Amino acid sequence: MKRHDELAAQWGLSPVAVARLEAFLAGLAADEHAPTTVRDPERAVEAHVADALDGLAVDAVRRAREIADLGAGAGVPGLVLAAALPTAHVALVESAGRKCAFMDRVAAAMGLDNVDVVPARAEAWSEGLGSCDVVTARALAPLPVLVEYAAPLLRPEGVLVAWKGAPARDEEADGDAAARVLGMSSAERVPLAARPGADRRSLYLYLKVGSTPNGYPRRPGMARKRPISASTSS
Q1: Maximum CA pair distance of the chain?
Q2: Average pLDDT, stretch 193-213?
Q3: I want to staple 204 with a disulfide (CB 3.0 to 4.6 A). Which of 88, 104, 162, 212 is the partner?
């Protein structure tokens, strides 16, 4: 597929990485129970693979040795980044058993030995506390919730990379408020090139600059039920 060659040239992907990404697309197409509505390879290469590879624009992602993909779902961006970064270990953190089973099958088909599927909620993954160079999240939750999920998992100078469309200013403000509470920097927004059906896309980057306060992570569900906001943190 020509698009594969273009992505390989853009991101410096090896032939092995390209073959693994082709296996990922084949896995999506073959499994009618795959946890995504975009399964056709010609659409999925853009919506899933190219979108996930945009994370390689972040230096911290390219350098990372330990990556956690939260709410990994169909394995995007986690499985895609694992194929592109064979020296990084990627934890695919997902609470839904059906999605975990899918990622296990596809990771095996891709021949990946640098991933682990973690059947847990982000807030309950105690083994990950303080262990991650990078935490990724795509289509998972509002920015303040993502910051709360990620902060306890990150090492000092670790980075949360959140794929977002066009969040409202209130969401951005709440994300920065959560960052102040949780020892993270305010967001750096990295605009991405438009794609068909997605003309406003960005990565939101938060750097861990301090320690996570006592009491975090809160028990599962609290980050969504009572998110930190600009109004409550001031």
Answers
A1: 52
A2: 88
A3: 162
